[in-house]
Amino acid sequence: MSEQMFRMFELAQQGFYCSQILLLLGLEAQGKDNPDLIRAMSGLAGGLGFSGQTCGALTGGACLLGLYAGKGTPGENEHPRFQIMVNELVDWFKEEVGSSCGGINCEDILGEDLQYKVVSVQCGNIVSSTYEKVREILINNEIDFDEARE
User: Fold this and answer.
1) CA 138 to CA 141: how far, in whole Å?
2) What NCBIfam families would the database entry show (predicted)?
3) Pair 46, 5: CB distance under 8 Å
């Protein structure tokens, strides 16, 4: 098991969900801590508050891209390719996850387990592959994953 997978497993055991895990990993890579952001990310869990809608790994992945390339202050601009990066992630997710799970909604992926708020091994694999895809997208756009924006 890779160090990254072990860390994801550890965070899941602590009760964090897909979207939260992705942002925790991004913040840790930057040497930051932001409990308010992680708390806010819980609203994406289980497909938007466990409603079964869009998977939290996808929405969390888009938020992780935003952490690195989005607008955060009035004087700051989002990266010129930010929307393209998010669209690339969505297209990849539809192809990689949606095609094998019957859709990109949490309900498609978890089925009946959604009602029990069960985080499955499948979820762990999806979070891990989403994390790697986000890193790849950032690298391809010359954004250093280990550096925070100023």
Assistant:
1) 5
2) C_GCAxxG_C_C, DVU1555_fam_CGA
3) no
Are the C-beta atoms of residues 52 and 114 closer than 8 Å to each other?
yes
Q: Is the pLDDT of residue 150 over 90?
A: no
Neighbours of 120 (CB within 10 A): 12
Locate all alpha helices (DSSP H) within 14-44, ordered by sequence: 18-29, 35-41
Q: How far apart are CA 1 and CA 52, in angstroms?
A: 29
By C-alpha distance, which of 75, 63, 81, 82 is closest to 25? 63
Of 13, 131, 15, 14, residue with least CA distance to 63: 131
Q: Are 48 and 107 in contact (CB under 8 A)?
A: no
- What does the pLDDT look like over 3-35, one tens digit per residue? 888 899 999 999 999 999 999 999 999 999 999
Residue keyed to tokens 């964090």: 16
Domain boundaries, the chain: 3-140
Six token digits for residue 125: 């694999």
